[in-house]
Specification:
Blueprint lengths: L1 E14 L2 E10 L2 E7 L5 E6 L2 H11 L4 E9 L2 E9 L3 H12 L4 E5 L5 H8 L7 E9 L1 E2 L2 E2 H4 L1 E6 L4 E2 L9 E8 L13 E8 L4 E5 L11 E3 L3 H14 L4 E4 L2 H16 L13 E5 L2 E5 L4 E4 H8 L7 H9 L11 H7 L1 H36 L3 H4 L4 H15 L10 H9 L7 E2 L9 E5 L3 H8 L7 E2 L9 E3 L6 E3 L5 H22 L3 H26 L8 H24 L2 E7 L2 E6 L8
Parallel strand pairs: 3-11, 13-17, 15-16, 17-20
Antiparallel strand pairs: 1-2, 1-8, 2-3, 4-6, 4-7, 5-6, 8-11, 8-12, 9-10, 13-14, 14-15, 18-19, 21-26, 22-27, 23-25, 24-25, 26-27
């Protein structure tokens, strides 16, 4: 059978000792789970003697296949040994065994998760539409098509991408209110008193065991008990076939608390597409609440990267985005509002609804950018929304390396990272602002300064040369430090940044030429996502725990940046302008009839 679906999520399970990829997908209101058992985990091995290394691997490890392959290592073609295992757990178990073999110098790409490897190698992009061709199954392991109202398709051909267009997703925001007379809520003692929900498909209510006054808008869904409240929440998610559920600090509070109370009250939180419950998985330094086929986005984490604030409370973020004050109730008084009833209870209901409506508005403002980043990076939205910007850039580069036939570098160890963190890069040029009120200022700003420097000066570890060279004309040499980068060939990272900036300029031209307001809006989100990714690439060099870390490259970029800003300021002074403030990639200047003597 053949069916077009939108890929939402991915994982893998084990069947008959083999890994089976599961792709959680939607076709309109229909839930579809695609199965693929044809993909196998692998890694690359660097040997000082290829033939001897292959023989040692064959004698000491139980693997599916061993083959010589030609891949690029920082743009230089060389021979690797590709070792394929039957299961990801076998790959993980045998990494140290491989390292211990006499002929093995290094193993590479051993730490790329199996599901992420599948997305890259098969060029499957989450949150986009594909054509799936395969055999329909009635059941598979814990999946039952009739019981769970899902369609199960075992793929017989690789997925085919459908020309992309903006997808509309069903989004639900939620938030808990807890009666907490003793301060911080304790899930073993303190009951949930309200669950607020707001959506882009018409469901906006507060579920509670109490109701508001008759003269208020009737948005409260009154139920008999806390248990029934949680069951009603689960029912809303299932009946409305939600694609994305959003909360604010929901990884740390709402989902853990909800799960604890559901367990105490014997309620199944079986809201995953396969009727699985909420699970917690490690993402970065924290645990994230995960649901199969229902994407959970914690907007608190997103907003910490989206804007720079002193505090990231929902009230502050909402005000910064929309310029409006939202309803607020002091956290320590929630239980009093609940107990007192009357007008205070009405205010608490208003507050609960306002929380989820505000969260939904923030989601509608920020999710388009995150969806576009998901499509560009090619990793699940659940993961991308929890990645630091440097991690997003790194995974984009890992994907591009696959298409360029490059084997990606290994991450350096913790000891290396500690040493690297101690290294001092001067950073961008900053001139402190002159005090006073200034009028009639002009602004000078470099477009994509650091990405442009990386491209124009070909700054990349694979074309960097340390020490003396025969002909300096063949190199771009950084000011201050004299770091040398070959003018050709183009380095791997400059080539990637060049491609994405050209794509951004193409999108901006298309956006300018379009008369369709919806298309303009969609294209603007795309170019913003690309700009954000390109500007982050400098961070790849500057963060020691990332694969392409290079202190020398980071120093060279900022040294050229300082040179450009200083020379621009000096040139402006020749025309009667002098800078009153400068920071990294631009400056503000004031016109003075007499040429300034400032340096």
């Amino acid at each position: 059978m053949e069916k077009n679906v939108v890929i939402l999520d991915i994982d893998y399970v084990t069947y008959e000792d083999k890994p089976v990829i599961r792709l959680f997908s939607k076709n309109g209101d229909e839930n579809v789970i695609l199965l693929d058992d044809t993909f196998e985990p692998y890694l690359y091995v660097v040997c000082d003697d290829i033939d001897k290394g292959i023989e040692e691997i064959r004698e000491n490890l139980d693997v599916i296949s061993i083959e010589k392959v030609i891949k690029k290592d920082f743009q230089v073609e060389k021979e690797f040994v590709k070792v394929t295992f039957e299961h990801p757990q076998e790959l993980a178990k045998n990494r140290d065994n491989l390292r211990d073999l006499e002929s093995v110098v290094q193993i590479r790409e051993f730490d790329i998760p199996f599901y992420r490897r599948y997305l890259m190698d098969r060029d499957v992009i989450p949150m986009t539409e594909v054509t799936a061709i395969g055999e329909e199954l009635d059941s598979f392991l814990n999946l039952d098509s009739k019981k769970q109202d899902i369609q199960i398709i075992k793929l017989t051909e690789e997925l085919k991408r459908v020309p992309d267009y903006p997808q509309k997703f069903r989004i639900l925001s939620f938030d808990l209110e807890v009666r907490n007379p003793h301060g911080m809520p304790n899930s073993e003692e303190d009951e949930i008193i309200m669950i607020g929900v707001a959506s882009n498909f018409g469901v906006n209510q507060v579920i509670s065991t109490k109701t508001n006054s008759e003269d208020r808008d009737d948005f409260v869904n009154q139920v008999e008990s806390e248990k029934e409240m949680i069951e009603e929440f689960v029912d809303i998610i299932k009946k409305n076939n939600v694609d994305i559920i959003v909360g604010y600090n929901s990884d740390n509070f709402d989902f853990p608390y909800l799960k604890d109370r559901a367990k105490i009250l014997d309620v199944d939180l079986d809201i995953g597409m396969d009727e699985s419950e909420v699970k917690y998985i490690r993402r970065g330094y924290a645990n994230a609440a995960s649901l199969k086929g229902l994407i959970h986005v914690d907007l608190y984490l997103v907003m910490r990267r989206y804007m720079s604030l002193e505090r990231y409370t929902l009230e502050r973020v909402y005000y910064e985005l929309f310029g409006e004050e939202k309803i607020d109730v002091p956290g320590e008084r929630i239980w009093e509002f609940w107990d007192n009833g009357g007008e205070e209870l009405d205010n608490l209901f208003d507050y609960s609804l306002d929380d989820v409506v505000s969260t939904l508005k923030i989601a509608e403002q920020t999710l388009p950018l995150n969806l576009e980043l998901t499509r560009i990076i090619g990793q699940p939205l659940f993961d991308v929304s929890r990645m630091a910007t440097g991690q997003q850039a790194e995974w984009f580069l890992v994907k591009q390396a696959y298409f360029d036939n490059e084997v990606v570098p290994n991450k350096q160890g913790a000891n290396f990272a500690d040493r690297a963190n101690a290294e001092d890069n001067e950073g961008g040029y900053v001139r402190e602002p002159e005090t006073g009120l200034h009028e009639n200022l002009v602004q000078f700003d470099f477009r994509s300064l650091y990405p442009s420097i990386i491209i124009s000066k070909n700054i990349s570890p694979d074309v960097m040369v340390l020490g003396d060279v025969e002909n300096e004309d063949d190199y771009n040499i950084s000011p201050e430090h004299g770091l040398k980068f070959k003018k050709s060939p183009q380095g791997f990272i400059p080539s990637v940044i060049d491609k994405i900036l050209q794509e951004r300029f193409r999108i901006k031209r298309e956006m300018k030429a379009s008369d369709d307001l919806q298309q303009k809006k969609a294209l603007d989100v795309q170019q913003q996502a690309i700009k954000r990714l390109a500007n982050t690439m400098y961070g790849i060099y500057g963060f020691p725990r990332f694969r392409w870390y290079s202190f020398e490259c980071a120093k060279a970029i900022t040294s050229w940046g300082r040179q450009y800003i200083k020379s621009s300021i000096k040139k402006a002074e020749e025309y009667g302008f002098y800078a009153i403030y400068a920071d990294t990639d631009g400056f503000y200047a004031k016109y003075k009839k007499e040429k300034s003597k400032r340096n």
